[in-house]
Structure formats: structure tokens, C-alpha cells
Amino acid sequence: QVQLVESGGGLVQPGGSLRLSCVASKNIPTISVMSWHRQAPGKQRESVASITDGSVTTYSDSVKGRFTISRDADRKTIYLQMNNLKPEDTAIYYCKLNTNSGGTWGQGTQVTVSS
């Protein structure tokens, strides 16, 4: 079973930037989609961005134009570059791997946007 470990969260002022990383413990299956999700206090977990094996990316409307998802050539690490952060971006950010066998979640990393 592959494990996912996120890092890069922290406290940042509005308008600032952070880059999150998610590293897989072993090679990722060829047919897979990796994605970022977030959950704010008292709210449901929501999808933020995803990237396919062919590097096709999708974004939620709330982050489009501000966040960028990418992956390393070895396909074991994905990133979420977050620019122009807003207080409403405050949440725990989770990485997820989707394969034909199901989904695997990371443990999450806290992002807090506050002055």
C-alpha cells in the first residue's frame, strides 16, 4: 500500500504564497490521478486541483488562476503552488492518489492565511 506524505503548510499573510508537496512512498501505478483537496473547519472536504498521468490538470473555480498543480518526472511527487492566498483558503490540505484499486489519502497539512 502506497503512503502519501504532505508538507509545506504554514501561516502566511493574505496575498502571500506557499508551495505544498506530496511524496508517495513507492512508484505510482501508470493509470492514476493525483489530486489536492482541502477541508476548512465546519465544512466538507472539497476538491482543489488534480493532475492525470498525461499531466492534464483541473482546478476548482475558487482557486483557478491562483493555484498550480504539478508533478515530478518520477511521478512520485506532486506540488501545489498557491499564490495570492486569501483567508478563505485556510484549511487542512490533503493529497489523494486515485487508481483502479481505489483511493489513498495523506495525513494533511495545515494552511492558515491570516494577518
Give me some keywords for this one.
about 55% strand, 11 strands, about 120 residues, 7-stranded mixed beta sheet, mainly beta
Structural overview:
The chain is mainly beta. The protein has no helices and eleven strands. It has strands at 4-7, 10-12, 18-24, 32-39, 46-52, 57-59, 67-71, 77-82, 91-99, 102-105, 109-113. The strands form two sheets. Strands 2, 4, 5, 6, 9, 10 and 11 form a seven-stranded mixed sheet that branches. A hairpin with a 2-residue loop joins β9 (91-99) and β10 (102-105). The termini are far apart.
Quick summary of this structure?
The chain is mainly β.
Break the fold down into its secondary structure elements and pairings.
Blueprint: E1 4-7, E2 10-12, E3 18-24, E4 32-39, E5 46-52, E6 57-59, E7 67-71, E8 77-82, E9 91-99, E10 102-105, E11 109-113
Parallel strand pairs: 2-11
Antiparallel strand pairs: 1-3, 3-8, 4-5, 4-9, 5-6, 7-8, 9-10, 9-11
- What is the number of beta strands? 11
Give the end-to-end Cα distance, rounded to a whole number of Å.
40 Å
Mean pLDDT comes to 95
Biggest sheet details: 7 strands, mixed
Question: What portion of the residues fall into strands of 2 or more residues?
Answer: over 45%
Poorly predicted spans: none
Order of helices and strands: EEEEEEEEEEE
| Overall geometric form | globular
Number of helices, counting only DSSP H or I runs of 4 residues or more: 0
Pairing-aware structural class of the strands and helices? mainly beta
The helix content is under 10%
- Rg (C-alpha, Å): 13 Å
